[in-house]
Amino acid sequence: MSEICALILAAGEGTRLRPLTLERPKPMVPIAGRPLLDYTVGWLRDHGIADIAINLHYKPEVIVQHFGDGRAFGVRIHYSHEPKILGTAGAARKIRTWVDGRPLIVVYGDVLTDLDLHALLSHHAQMSERDSTTVVTMSLYHVPNPTEVGLVGMDDTGRVNRFLEKPKPSEVFTDLANAGILVLQPKALELIPEDTFCDFGMHVFPMLLQAGLSIYGWVIPEDTYLLDIGSPEKYAQANREWPEHLRQKANAQPIGTRF
């Protein structure tokens, strides 16, 4: 899959995780003794994604000093420095030249997961072949708190037709939300405004739908581990659960495939 590249969104400060983030950006907080970003880079590498961009803003030197050019981690890392925060979509637009017409995986930097990326990419390829207007495939997951997140509605074909940010209880129409892992066709980057703050959920996705382009949703399998570690409670949960999850995963794999 060398023709596919990835962007990890790592510019955030993570104010809710202070004091852990006083000296490091949020994606570098330790989970089971290693930075969260270690797991994300390794997860991409193990799915055959070797070209990885990381956007930087808060405490950028911590990430650069840890990963260098990526060779020690089996990947090639391109750093995208943002003197001012550009948002999730603005960060993707900024690396458009580096992407160079390739499909782009976008991973939110505070997501800890073992999601089957091959399955997501396969679904994206199928949707793109069936529907030439496909520009994005977004991973979705069932949330226990629909009023606290942005909800995503789909039709019977899996085509996204509605977004609603943090609805009132009476407005809840689904429990599906963006899981923080997207696959973008190059055309999507062309439509994002340049050098300005732009968010996928707030700005880009509604704009794409209004333009008549297709976004498809892919609901992650139930056995997928996925956790947004952006709050102290979720961070503590990750450190409780992830070590045991890794042990179980390693024990279930044949010798020679463990990492």
Report what the structure shows.
The protein contains eight helices and 13 strands. The longest helix has 21 residues. It is of the alpha/beta class and 259 residues long. It has a single domain, classed as Spore Coat Polysaccharide Biosynthesis Protein SpsA, Chain A (Alpha-Beta Complex), CATH 3.90.550.10. Strand 4, helix 2 and strand 5 form a beta-alpha-beta unit. The C terminus is likely disordered.
Task: Name the features.
Spore Coat Polysaccharide Biosynthesis Protein SpsA, Chain A; globular; 13 strands; two-stranded antiparallel ribbon; alpha/beta; 7-stranded mixed β-sheet
Topology at a glance:
Elements: E1 5-9, E2 30-31, E3 34-35, H1 36-46, E4 51-56, H2 60-67, E5 76-81, H3 87-94, H4 96-99, E6 104-108, E7 111-113, H5 117-130, E8 134-142, E9 150-154, E10 160-165, E11 176-184, H6 186-190, H7 200-210, E12 214-219, E13 226-228, H8 232-252
Parallel strand pairs: 1-4, 1-6, 4-5, 8-12
Antiparallel strand pairs: 2-3, 6-11, 7-13, 8-11, 9-10
